[in-house]
Every structure is written in structure tokens, then in C-alpha cells.
Design brief:
Blueprint lengths: L1 H23 L6 H14 L8 H8 L5 H7 L6 H16 L5 E10 L9 E5 L4 E15 L2 E10 L2 H4 L2 H6 L11 H14 L6 E4 L6 H10 L2 E4 L6 E2 L9 E2 H7 L6 E8 L2 E7 L10 H4 L10 E3 H4 L1
Parallel strand pairs: 1-5, 5-6
Antiparallel strand pairs: 1-3, 2-3, 3-4, 7-8, 9-10, 10-11
Helix pairs in contact: 2-4, 8-9
Amino acid sequence: MAGASIETTLELWASSLREVKARIWPLFAQERAAVSAGLFLDGLLSEERRKTGWMRAEAAGDPGPWRQQTVLGRGRWDADALRDIVRDYALETFADPDAVLVIDETGFLKQGKASCGVARQYTGSAGKITNCQIGVFAAYVSRHGHAFVDRALYLPKAWTDDPERLAAAHVPSETGFSTKPGLARAMIERAITAEAPFAWVSADSVYGVGDIETVLRRAGKGYVLGVTGQHHFRSWDKASAAGTADEIAAALDASGWKRLSAGEGTKGARLHDWAYIELADLDAKVFYDRAARPTRAPSRSSRILS
């Protein structure tokens, strides 16, 4: 029985992988490019700790890395179409009306200057300003599971203001500068246009800006967006709650705070104190003809209170 169960599981995995490869196959004009893309996908799922071109070539039985490098570099295929295929594939399993769209960024450390978008900039991956690329990502999270469904590479102005540098990296000539919140807003709008079911959007203080709030209110989506301590709130119906986030938090009674864990970190539980206050209780149809939930939950790290 145990052997049969393992065989069944392996066949299910193999069948699912073949289905995924069949979905992405039409993106490639040549069969050999599609085959290389399939081998590249096999490599991403392998147990190799470092997936360099040469290591992947060796595992695939290729004489050199150029076949799989072609998929990422010289090959012509629509990366945005692949993004949509991945999103639709994830939604087939994880779709839920109460799902959350989580926006966050991460950095990819680099040594040189040629990688598209590379610059000296802050990344939480290193906890400092360093030479890196920054990617903004959207993850779909529901009670069924979670998966990345969108991505965008952040291009600093040093790149978008330099046409020759953009051309050398094969960036489309019409690409202009966009802030990280701007990239996030485009992702949210794409998810809404694709009719991905979700009820909330969550993001840290980088994305707690007015443009994103406007999109979510108009779409009738709830949101939990971080803000800095100096972010100013103007409550429409509760004047006592007006002020900066720091001022509002400091004025709250100690009994109004609840300590919760955001999960285990490298130094133990990541504890934060939370308090909820209603800043507005308005029907958004007055402005947008759709319902919204424009409320915020100020929080502060437990380290501040300790």
C-alpha cells in the first residue's frame, strides 16, 4: 500500500508538471525553445542549492548552458502572458472571495552594473543600502494556500533617464519611471481586471499612499496598509482621532492595545501591539457608487513598549 501510494503521488506530480508545460508551450515560437523552457522549469523545482547555468545544463544533459540561457535572454516570448498563465493556474486552486492580495518587495544582491535596474538602494534582504535589484511582488493568499501572481522590476530614475542604458538591457523604449507604489497599483488593477476574487489588500508602509487607497475604495476592497508614524489622519466624524499616527497611538488607553504574534522570526516570536479605531464610517457610494472599508489599524512594535 505504501509503495502504491508513493507511485500514485509521483504520477500525480508528473502529470501536473506535464500540464503546466503544456500551458506555457504556446508562448514559444520554436519547439526547441519550449523544450528548453521545460528543462528550465525542471531545474527550478530540483533540489540543487545553486541553480547556475552550468549546473542546470549538466543536470539537463546539455553540452553547455546556452540553451537554457536563451530562454531568459535571447529567446522571444511574452513574459506578461506567462504571468497571466501563472495567475490563472493559481486561482484554479486557491480562489476564494475572502482572499488577501499581499504586496511586498525584495532585493537581489548584485556585484556589477549591467543587470537591469541594478543600483545602490535600500533592500530589506540586506538591511542596508547596497548594490541590488528591487522586485515588487503580489501574492495571492487564501485559506486554500498561497502563490505569487504578479511581479515588476523597479527601475530607478538613473535607469529610466538613460535611454542608452535601457536599450543595452533590452528595456522597451516606452518604459518610463514608476514608483514602487505605482507598480503595486498596476498589479492591483490587473488583479481586479482579471476578476481575481479577493477581499483585502495588505502591504507595508512603502505602499500606504493615497493612490493605492483610491483604487481600493473605488473597487470596494478592504485594505490594511502600513504608514509611517508621521502619516496624518483626518477623521471625518471623530475629531478626537485626528493627528499623526504617532499622536493617535500615544493617546490611546493602554487597555486598547492587544499583543499579537506575526509568526516566528530568527529571534523568536515577532510580537507587535495592535489597537483598532474607526476613522470613518461612511458609505463610499456617496463618492464612488461602490462600497468600501476605509479604516486603518495603527500598530507599534512591542519593542517600543518593552
